[in-house]
Amino acid sequence: MLIYLNKTNLKPLSIVTSLSLSMAPFYAASGGAQFNTEFLDINDRSKIDLNRFSQDDYVMPGTYDLVVQINKNELSEHSVTVYDSDDTPDVSHACITAELIQKIGIKEEYLKNLSWWHNNECASESSLSGMDVKVDLSTSSLNISMPKTYLEYVSDNWEPPSRWDNGIAGILLDYNISLQARQQTGMPDAYLFRGNGTTGGNIGAWRIRADWQSHMDNQNKGQSIDRRLEWSRFYAYRALPSLKARLIAGEDYLNSGLFDGFRFTGTSLASDDNMLPPGLRGYAPEVTGVARTNARVIISQQGRVLYETQVPSGPFRIQDLNDSVSGELDVRVEEQDGSVQQFKVSTASIPYLTRPGDWRYKVALGRPSDFRHKFNGPHFITGELSRGISNGWSLYGGALVAPSYGALSFGVGRDLLLFGAISFDVTQSRAKLKNESSHSSDGRSYRVSYSKTFDEIDSQVTFAGYRFSDKNYLSMSNWLEARNGGISAGRSKEMYTLTLNKRFRDSGLSLWFGYDHQTFWDRPSTNRYTATLSGDFDLWDWKRLNLSLSAYRSRYYGSNDDGVYLSMSIPLGERSRMSYNSTFSKDTADHRVGYYDRVNDTDSMQMSLDSYRDRIGANVFYNHRGDLADTSINAAYQAGRFASTTVSFTGGATLTKEGGAFHRGGITGGTRLLVDTSGVPDVPVKGYGSIIRSNRFGKAVLVDVNSYFRSRAIVAVDELDERTEATKAVVHSTLTDGAIGYRKFDVISGLKAMAMIRLADGSVPPFGSTVMNARKQETGVVGDEGNVFLVGINEGESMSVRWDGVVKCIITLPTPLPTDVLTRILLLPCIQSESMENK
């Protein structure tokens, strides 16, 4: 029978003692301690379990799940075994195994100095001067400190390969889908569906992926016009940290710093700049443009969709493309009224420079293949190599060889220090075509590349390059087209590329300029440039007034698309603003008055009234970053012309043996972190983006995780409800590319109450006994007369009571709990069963 007592029945010192034991551990004085129990108001001092407190830094032998910290930098949770010392009684040491030594990242030259104990299982901390190891059970941590001299290079956001985590096995499905309904004057109603994404799974260090894309158009009350689902790419890859490289098998696009890319089926091994510290990583491409209305931007390469997103009207700048993307990209801007802009962007890389003494390399072999997974060329092999030599010089070169085709390249790069970096290379090709059996077509291509950041004048030339190819030069893709189709289309002649950023500190203005110009031997030239001048100003009572002027020109297949975009934004508060925009293109001038409101951390809204092509219209754009998916709603109306609504969803699902969750969108098929909130639902968790909440199973997936970066996830403790506590609210991880990481927070949910525990014979558990829930979380420490302050209790829940290192009995909370449980004392019988004897 359960009895409720009034708290006045308890001795005041008993309550204080129980609360003290529940909320903080005892620490012995230096040199060890013998506790004087006379100061405790305890009736039976023979029933005291203070083994855990009796020695200085003494930890009972056993195996513990501890978070390993190196010089206060958290690694991850490990099972750590504590042993009594081999030669000193009453002294215990944590066993630092060879596996844990590898995770710590000790330099190779110091590993040989390590000595070992406990049958050569554990490294001795005394073998490295200055090394100190301590177990702290109060924080469930193993704290290791040592001079940085012993350790591999570490920074605040980067760790050496020895600490990288391949994650756990699991499956994933990432998607980006949109549905549009459009009514256009004089035309049938149109219903369009678009989708793309990646599905696959992880096994150990391997990532198995399949990319898909889908398209469906319906008109005339559901009559199907076009419907297709295509699996565009099948491949598998893994990181090889010892080589600082990535291995890919399957369908891929040649990623080369020397030769033009093409699609092939085979295998490649290439140095991965993402594995380098942040300051040494490469350049990721970006795409800029101006949307006349709310629009959808689709970036593809040789038929495969790489990126797809909704953008509001005005200039857009897409910078989160994967930095492994190279070559020419096709950009399609689908306006809300059905019109389409199309242009190409040639991606480029910074000069091919390598640190002195280092090597960078790429090797690939296979056969060219098309979008339908069929071979369309002979076997080939290609390789390139760069070597950093002293004084900032780099030499690099490579070759691409196939039957009837060959290309050889050689170049030199130079770090000019204050003046940036420059490289020059020349490529010689030799190709034999079907209609030129008597001789080969020989040609050369020359390239100069330059990069420089001018910190002293707030300027940056991200990339500037020039390339010239003579008429007989054929890239591999040109040769394949000529071989399969009888003509060689798109043979490049000259190409200029420039990206420039400049900030004027005194005036507060910023200038961004991008230029891409390319001429061909066999088709019209293409031009693409965009310039944006913007700044923030204070004007009368309006603070942070923003003005922006953008001009752009695209010349594609002989047709010019020119425009100027003027924007003015006036803040109305911390989250909202009014704006006025004008777009001038060809013979039209469009005007728009808009209102933007950042509703909260996850929602934003934009509305506008406009004059577009001399007709009045309205636009609404709403975006929600949800826990299950990112959702955007895009509606537009123009009098006498069209009405259109688009709904887009970007998200994914990840499932592992540790659980899974639906989640918002990130890089499709990319790195993610599954966090476990100890089974407690609705716990707010934050990575680098906005807060998400764990699902009903206590799981959430963070997609804002960068590969090879030291990332952090935290429980937003200020947003927890009063029933929930997080005793471990921060986790860290450094995940390899495409990994599904797993980390667990220590979260307790439930009420708090004082209780009295009684054994079957009417006695009480020993002073210092611990109470633990089913998830092995400590919920209280027993004080005098069996009094204990319990946290995280729920009706009907069973908890174990332990002393002498084993489970002795079980207490069960009442159902239902009294509504005034905080002002009562629960009398809880502790029931012993035979199955507990061996626990």
UniProtKB/TrEMBL annotation:
GO terms for molecular function: fimbrial usher porin activity. Residues 756-811 form the PapC-like C-terminal domain. The keyword Signal applies. It holds the Pfam family PapC_N. It is found in: Cell outer membrane. GO terms for cellular component: cell outer membrane. PROSITE patterns: FIMBRIAL_USHER. Its main location: membrane. Residues 1-28 form the signal peptide. One of its GO terms (biological process) is pilus assembly. Keywords: Cell outer membrane, Fimbrium biogenesis, Membrane, Signal, Transmembrane, Transmembrane beta strand, Transport. It is a multi-pass membrane protein. Belongs to the fimbrial export usher family. This is Fimbrial usher protein.
